[in-house]
């Protein structure tokens, strides 16, 4: 089975499974399911997106797959097993090639591969040998899921069929493991960032007064897909004028007016890994004095945040410190005054009127990636850095965002260091 992205070495997934297996209690078995394919209507479906956990542990990027990890299984061949949908000539003609058993081994490094039709029989044998069963549920702090997914249905079934086992949670283990990236993962994220750079450079020569937001979106998707990306890592935000003050503006259907700035929060995916960029650029190629003043203020906040995205800091402390930075800059811009600060509600400080979201989140296989917020920052965690000031009364907002890798010591490595960011760079490229 060929993917749009270049094949990821199976050694990455072997390493990931080893780390996961080492975190399990003795005599434990863990199960991971692919995502469903979601129907739209008639015979239409949404494009398949693999469940990031089974992908992280196996590299398998197709539907109806199951991974079982059982480190203490008596027979060595039962310690890692993949179950795949059986392929045949008819499926190959109608849907395209699926993984066969040899390709599954090449992709994942897992030697024991069965067809899905054998799952119940094989699984029953393994369950009689196991004491603990690790099941997987989405426990991300931002998750809000109303859909019953394949994993949920499996949890119900296994607990009904085997009520006497001791059930455990896989997700806390994965939250910790996935938050610290392997070198191969950093290379994939860097590639996603490089594709995003190509898109942004294309836009700087394309954007002019009266262009429509959706035309900008079309330029980006063209550039992303021609560089082996499936497209956007998340729904793109292309917000001109006052639209920038709607944090999750995704309509992208307005015309961009001379004198406005456009907030672009866009990023390419590559091999299921995300990038996440924001730039705020002038429609006519020149910032007004006030736009430039706010832009440079936000850029100073971003530089201050870099100094704090360091090993040993943590998410809560980092955000508290950034609140002080925003307060100082907003005082300088005249958007708040000393009385606002003195009388502020500690639960909703004065700066929150103009900067109401977090400065950073974990990034990786998910744009808002796994990570335990109470853990200290450690080497090879990846974070966004995205300060912004939103000023509806003045008809514009500014956000600037790059992606960073925490270093063992000192300031983080900027994966987007090559993407134009200063007022001068952006104006020069737009007017060249």
Reconstruct the topology from this structure.
Blueprint: H1 10-22, E1 28-33, E2 39-41, E3 44-45, H2 52-58, E4 66-69, E5 80-84, H3 89-95, H4 101-108, E6 112-115, H5 119-129, E7 132-135, H6 150-161, E8 166-169, H7 171-179, H8 183-204, H9 213-225, E9 237-240, E10 261-266, E11 277-282, H10 289-308, H11 315-333, H12 338-342, E12 382-385, E13 388-391, E14 396-399, E15 402-405, E16 413-414, H13 423-430
Parallel strand pairs: 1-7, 5-6, 7-8
Antiparallel strand pairs: 1-4, 2-3, 4-5, 9-10, 10-11, 12-15, 13-14, 15-16
Helix pairs in contact: 1-2, 1-4, 8-9, 10-11
Catalytic activity: Release of any N-terminal amino acid, including proline, that is linked to proline, even from a dipeptide or tripeptide
Pfam family, one: AMP_N
GO molecular function: manganese ion binding; metalloaminopeptidase activity
């Amino acid at each position: 089975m060929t993917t749009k992205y270049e094949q990821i070495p199976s050694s990455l997934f072997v390493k990931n499974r080893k780390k996961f297996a080492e975190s399990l209690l003795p005599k434990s078995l863990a199960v991971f399911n692919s995502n469903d394919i979601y129907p739209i209507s008639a015979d239409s479906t949404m494009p398949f997106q693999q469940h990031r956990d089974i992908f992280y542990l196996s590299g398998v990027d197709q539907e109806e797959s199951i991974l079982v990890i059982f480190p203490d299984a008596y027979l060595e061949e039962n310690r890692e097993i993949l179950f795949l949908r059986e392929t045949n000539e008819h499926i190959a003609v109608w849907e395209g090639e699926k993984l066969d058993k040899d390709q599954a081994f090449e992709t994942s490094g897992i030697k024991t591969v069965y067809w899905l039709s054998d799952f119940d029989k094989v699984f029953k044998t393994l369950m009689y040998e196991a004491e603990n069963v690790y099941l997987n549920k989405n426990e991300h702090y931002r998750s809000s899921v109303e859909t019953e997914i394949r994993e949920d249905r499996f949890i119900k079934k296994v607990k009904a069929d085997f009520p006497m086992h001791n059930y455990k949670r896989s997700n806390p283990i994965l939250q910790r493991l996935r938050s610290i990236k392997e070198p191969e993962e950093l290379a994939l994220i860097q590639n996603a960032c490089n594709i995003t750079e190509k898109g942004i450079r294309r836009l700087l020569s394309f954007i002019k007064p009266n262009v429509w937001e959706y035309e900008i979106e079309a330029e980006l998707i063209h550039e992303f897909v021609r560089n082996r990306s499936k497209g956007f890592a998340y729904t793109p935000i292309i917000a001109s004028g006052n639209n920038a003050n709607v944090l999750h503006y995704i309509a992208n259907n307005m015309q961009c007016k001379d004198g406005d700035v456009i907030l672009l929060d866009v990023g390419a995916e590559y091999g299921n890994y995300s990038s996440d960029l924001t730039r705020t650029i002038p429609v006519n190629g020149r910032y007004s004095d006030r736009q430039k003043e706010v832009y440079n203020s936000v850029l100073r906040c971003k530089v201050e945040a870099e100094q704090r995205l360091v090993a040993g800091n943590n998410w809560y402390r980092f955000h508290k410190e950034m609140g002080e930075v925003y307060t100082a800059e907003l005082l300088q811009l005249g958007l708040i005054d000393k009385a606002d600060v003195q009388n502020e509600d500690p639960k909703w400080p004065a700066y929150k009127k103009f900067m109401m979201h977090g400065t950073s989140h974990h990034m990786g296989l998910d744009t808002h990636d796994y990570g335990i917020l109470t853990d200290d920052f450690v080497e090879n965690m990846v974070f966004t850095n995205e300060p912004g000031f939103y000023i509806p009364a003045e008809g514009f907002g500014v956000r600037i965002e790059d992606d960073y890798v925490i270093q063992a010591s000192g300031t983080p490595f900027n994966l987007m260091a090559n993407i134009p960011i200063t007022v001068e760079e952006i104006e020069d490229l737009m007017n060249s």
